[in-house]
Write the structure tokens for this entry.
Amino acid sequence: MGAAVATLEKIAMPLFQKGEVRIRYSEVGSGFPLLVIPGGGLNSTIAGLKTHPFNPFDEFKDEYRVIAADLRNANPGQSSGPLEIDRSWDAFTDDHIGLMDHLGIRDFMVLGFCIGGPMIWNLLKRVPDRVVAAVPAQPSGSRPEMRDLFYQNNMSRDVIIAEGKGWGPQLCERRPDITIDQVSAFLNNMYTKRADFVFTVTRDFVRNCQTPILVLPDDVPAHPYLVAMETVHLAPNAQVTLYPWKDTPEKIPLAVRHIRTFLRAHRPVAAAQSMAAAVP
């Protein structure tokens, strides 16, 4: 377990509340803001970062104000809110934008694992003038041969929740106000009806996106390599790290080094000068 996550688990995390939505979040470090979206599908939580290839809290807290939150209605998390069937992706993006507003942050960078990939693209669609640079790591995407993968995973009764499996039935057990039919409609709108590419935006959007992007591809059923690479080829200011980058422990630090170099290159000049002035 990363030292930062271990520390966060021992203290009460702050709460951001807006209407019926309650978002538990944590932040460490100082400097230019870096929003981290943990993986784990709809069970994305801060604590889940301990299972990731690297922990952004540990890796980047010396240079950045690193911020992460439990996803709304993640079963192992502490965030909750309405199940917005007709605004599945946008409701989560509302939470991320709302958290940044709550913290008084306008411009920020974002690093997202797994489900964080589509969420990054939705942030770039919703607030393109606020996201300075983005890093989708092992991003989720839609495989043509497995269009119902995410629906089936989330509707299964598997007890494994780290990768989002069993999310729907377990949510209904915790929340008697939510029915399995509502969950099915939510998942269909979130995934099945959008079962192409990165779910949240079109290829034309990616082709015209000017934001600097660094992609760390993966190739498992939920993280298709071909989709990740298609975004790299389409986005005019995209880079890609070495691949595979996490098959051996020795390669992961190289990928982290690439992320660090990428973030430094695109950090606003004023923030970089402030960091330099703070170094004795």
